[in-house]
Amino acid sequence: MIIAAAWISAGLLSWLFYAKAVAPQQEKQVAVVVATHDMPLGTLLRPTDLKTVNYPERDIPKGVVFQAKDAVNRVVLFPMSSNEPLLISKLSGTTTVEGVSSTIEPGFRAVSVQITDVSGVAGLIQTNSRVDVLFTRPGTMAEASTSTILQNVKVLSTGRLAQTGQAADPRTPRSPVVTLVLTPDDAQKLELAKNEGRISLSLRNPLDSSQSANGGPLTTEVLDPLAYTRGKKNRASGSGEPDDARILRELAAKAKRDEDAKKKEAEKPRIVVDVYRGDKHVQELFR
Question: 110-148 pLDDT, tens per residue?
Fold first, then answer.
C-alpha cells in the first residue's frame, strides 16, 4: 500500500509540473503587424516593411494593427524599431497633411494646376491617375500653338482628396485643382507654362508608360493647311502682315464703310407731300 501511494503521489506531482510547463504554450496567440526593420520618422510604409508575428493575447497593446493592408501607404509619425508592433496612433492617415507630403518621393515636388471640367477630362482624373500635360499658347492664327510639355505624370491629389474613392465633404467648396508630382525642372516648366498660356490634362492608361516622340508644337496649320500659303503670298505682295490680321483689318474697314453709308442715307433731306384723294389724306416722302 505504501509503495502504491508513493507511485500515485509521484504521478500527481509529475502531472502538476507538466501542466505548469505547458500552460504558457497553450495561451491564446494573436497575429499582429510589426516592423521588419528600424524605420525613421516619415517612412512611407510598403508591404516589405511589414510582417505578422504571433503575440500572447494578454500582451497585445491597445490600438495595434492586425492586418498589413491597414498600414500600407501610411506614414510613420514616430521612429520605430525592428519587430515593434504597429500602433494606429503612430501612423498617419493618407489624407492628412503629414501623410500626403510624406508620400512625395525624395527628389520630387508637388505642383497644383487649376482645371475646368473640359481641361480636366470631365472629372475622370483621380488620385494616382497618370496624365500628360498640354500647353496651349494663345495668339493669332500664326502664333497659336499646342504642345505636350510633360508625359506620364502622377496625380498626387484632386482638390483636397488624396485617396482614391474618398468621398468629398459636401460642406467643402468644389476646388477644380489637381496636384501633380514632378521633378524640380518639370515643376519650373509647368509654372512657366501656367503664366504663358492655358494648361490642360490628358488622361493615360495607368499601364501605359510609353513616351511619345515630341515633334514640336502643333500650330493652326493642322486646322487650315492653306493658312501658311496665303500668308506667304501676302508677305510676297509686300503687305508684311499675317493673313488673319489682314482679314480682320479688311472686315473692320468694311463694317465702318457700311456704317458710314447708313449715316449718309439717314442724313439726306426728305420732302413731305400731302395728297388728298376724296376724303382720304395720304403723306408721301420724297428724297
Answer: 888 887 766 666 667 888 889 999 998 887 766 778 888
Tell me the pTM.
Answer: 0.48
Phi, psi (5° rounding) for residue 276? Answer: -110, 125
C-alpha 265/C-alpha 257 separation (Å) is 12
The tens digit of pLDDT for each residue in 216-275 reads 677 666 666 655 565 556 555 555 555 556 666 777 788 888 888 777 766 665 676 777
What is the reported pLDDT for 72? 86
CA of residue 65 relative to chain centroid, distance = 30
CA nearest to 44, candidates 200, 156, 175: 156
Length of the chain: 287
Rounded to an integer, what is the distance from CA 15 to the centroid of its chain? 68
- Residue 85 half-sphere exposure toward CB, CA atoms < 13 A: 19
* C-alpha cell at position 1: 500500500
CA–CA distance, 141 with 137 (Å, rounded to integer):
11
pLDDT of residue 222: 62
Give me the domains of the chain, ranges plus CATH numbers. 27-98 (3.90.1210.10), 104-220 (no CATH)
> Region 33-49: what's the mean pLDDT?
85
Q: Is 156 left (phi over 0), alpha (psi -120 to 50) or beta?
A: alpha
